[in-house]
Structure formats: C-alpha cells, structure tokens
TrEMBL record:
Domain (Amidohydrolase-related) ranges: 7-332
Keyword Metal-binding: yes
Key words, A-Z: Decarboxylase, Lyase, Metal-binding, Zinc
EC assignment: 4.1.1.45
Alphabetized Pfam families for the sequence: Amidohydro_2 (PF04909)
Domain of life the protein comes from: Bacteria
Pathway membership, UniProt: Secondary metabolite metabolism; quinolate metabolism
Organism placement in taxonomy: Bacteria, Bacillati, Bacillota, Bacilli, Bacillales
InterPro entries: ACMSD, Amidohydro-rel, Metal_Hydrolase
Subunit architecture: Monomer.
SUPFAM superfamilies, sorted: Metallo-dependent hydrolases
Family: Belongs to the metallo-dependent hydrolases superfamily. ACMSD family.
GO BP: secondary metabolic process
Name of the protein in its database record: 2-amino-3-carboxymuconate-6-semialdehyde decarboxylase
Length: 338
C-alpha cells in the first residue's frame, strides 16, 4: 500500500521573542507573550489572559516531536489570529506582520522538509498589505497569506479591499481565511461560545460575502480556503441559493451562491465524518484540505482523523484530502508527485 502523505494545513505558531508592541507604543490592545516557564506561556490582551499556550506553539523541535508521534509529514505554519491587530495604525501593523513573517520564514528555512509557511499582512492598509504580501512570497519564500474574516467590521467584499484580492489573484498567492473579531461577540462570552458558535458563524459570513459579491466572477483565478470547514456555510447554502432566486434585485453574481462555493476550498476541521461526507457531496473532495488547528485545545488529533473515519470514499479522494490538496492549493505541485 502506498503511504498517504499527511499534511496539516491549519496550524498556528508564534515566536518566543514576539515583539512587545504594547509596551513600545503604550497600547495594551496589542497582544503580548508572557512566558511562565519553559513549557508554557500566556497571550495577554489588555492585561487579561487571552489564551494559555504550551511550548509547541513556539518551539519547532517540540512540534516535530508531535508530528512524528502523530504521523504528520508536513505542517503549514500561520500566525495566531489575535495577532492580526487590524485595528492598529498602518505602520505598527506592518511592523507586527513583518516580524511574524520573518520568524515563520526562519522556521521553514531550518526545517524545509517539515514546514511550509504562510504569512500575514496589515490588511487595514491595502497598499502596505500588497507590498508585504509580495515581500513575504517573493523574498521570504512563504507560500500563502492568512487573513482575518473581516477588517475592523468591514466584510471581505468591501470595495476598499478589492485591490488586495486582485493582487493576490494576479501573483497567484493563495489566501487562508480564519475567523477573528467575531460578529456579535458581546453575546458570546459564556460557555466559550466565541469558539464553538461564533467562529463558524463568522466564517460563513466571510465566505458568503465573497461568494455573493461577484468577486469570483471578476477574479476567477483567486484561490481562497476557509478555516473550520467553512463554518456554517455548507448548511446555509440552500437558503442562500433561495435568497438569490427570490431577490433578483440584490444579485451581484451571474450564478447562484452554490456555484461559487464549489470553487472555494475548506479545511477538514469539522470533527464528524457525517459532516465531512456532506461537505464532499456539496463541494467535492478536491476542495477539502486536512487541517487540525494545532496546537490548541479544539484541535483534531491527529490531523485528518475525520478523513480516516470516512466510509464509502475512494482511496484516491482520501489521499487528496490528507495531503495532496494542501500542496496543490499552495502551488507546490512538484511535491504532490513525490
């Protein structure tokens, strides 16, 4: 039996020397990293614990130990979404993005067989974001850019962001959309609902904004993947199609939403094979990419477990979802033949 390459497309990393911009600029909205011991730390925002993390979050050696234990061949590294900081001024946002991109590129450079890097950009300033995207890809060698699901409350279809997507399509940079700054977050404080309910809803809104805006008619080469299986998008698509049908005056697309949804990509982090099977029926196996959300509590262990537990799916499709789709999405077609 041929070994199936296992690629974890959805993992997060932060530098142990993460810059303290809160101190530098006197603004405690910037996240800071407070080390508690050699094995753990906290991310603080406005003096409060945002998230407790363990050393695999910053230590590539620990990550590779986990990868070896779990049978993961390659991880795709991306920043932790709280670090987007789109609310900040353009220059400090660029400083933070550059620091993270440089760090991720350095990790990949030291371990090129185990890691692939995706960067971040200051999307609050589209000109700077495009310039940093070009630097990250063309100079640092990163293979994609992770962006947030909204920019200071603006949905991704906002006209102010169009030139960023246009540039990404033009230079063939794939984008990974991760929820952050959740819609209605003031109502999501109990039961960790921000993570369990807010994130899927926010992701569906981000995907729906792109789908219904006509962006994909204008930029057919744009490659976008959504975290967490697209959130609730797969389950609300029939309702979106119905809305497109009954409100023709609001249409900005040539075809109904489900047509464009099949052109997007989604990670596999839905936990339940029934849900994943539904996604395969909706979008096709070629649009689904294994991702775990390593190293956080809600992660799947190991990546692709939900794919492994599928029944009635062709081995070729399993192979695609576990690794080949990730490499193809990132433009690493030579590795798909390895």
């Amino acid at each position: 039996m041929v070994k199936k390459l296992r690629v974890d497309f959805h993992t997060h990393i932060i530098s142990e020397d993460f810059p303290n911009l809160a101190e530098k600029y006197g603004d405690d909205r910037f996240p800071i990293l407070q080390n508690n011991c050699s094995c753990g730390a906290e991310i603080l925002v406005q003096g409060k614990t945002f998230r407790k993390i363990t050393n695999p979050t910053w230590d590539p050696i620990k990550r590779m130990e986990d990868m070896d234990k779990e049978g993961v061949d390659i991880q795709v590294l991306s920043p932790i979404p709280v670090t987007f900081s789109y609310w900040s001024d353009s220059q400090s946002g660029l400083e933070l993005a550059k620091s993270q991109n440089n760090f991720i590129a350095s990790v990949v450079e030291k371990n090129p067989d185990r890691f692939i890097g995706m960067g971040t950009v200051p999307l609050q300033d589209v000109k700077l974001a495009i310039a940093e995207m070009e630097r990250a890809v063309k100079i640092l060698g990163l293979k994609g850019i992770q962006i947030g699901s909204n920019v200071n409350g603006l949905n991704l279809d906002d006209s102010s962001l169009y030139h960023f997507f246009e540039a990404a399509a033009e230079i063939n940079v794939p984008l990974f959309v991760h929820p952050w700054a959740m819609l209605g977050r003031e109502r999501l404080q109990k039961f960790n609902s921000m993570y369990t309910i807010g994130m899927p809803s926010e992701t569906a809104l981000a995907a729906g904004s792109i789908i219904m805006s006509g962006l994909m008619d204008k930029l057919p080469n744009l490659k976008v993947c959504f975290a967490h299986g697209g959130g609730s998008l797969p389950y609300v698509l029939p309702r979106m199609d119905k809305g497109w049908e009954v409100w023709p005056e609001t249409r900005q697309t040539e075809k109904p939403p489900s047509f464009y949804a099949k052109k997007l990509y989604y990670d596999s982090l839905v936990y339940d094979p029934v849900n994943l099977k539904f996604m395969i029926e909706q979008f096709g196996a070629k649009q689904i990419i294994a991702g775990s959300d390593y190293p956080f509590l809600l992660r799947e262990t190991p990546v692709g477990r939900v794919i492994d537990n599928l029944e009635g799916v062709a081995e070729d499709d399993v192979r695609l979802m576990l690794g080949q789709n990730a490499l193809g999405f990132l433009g690493l077609h030579e590795l798909t033949k390895a």
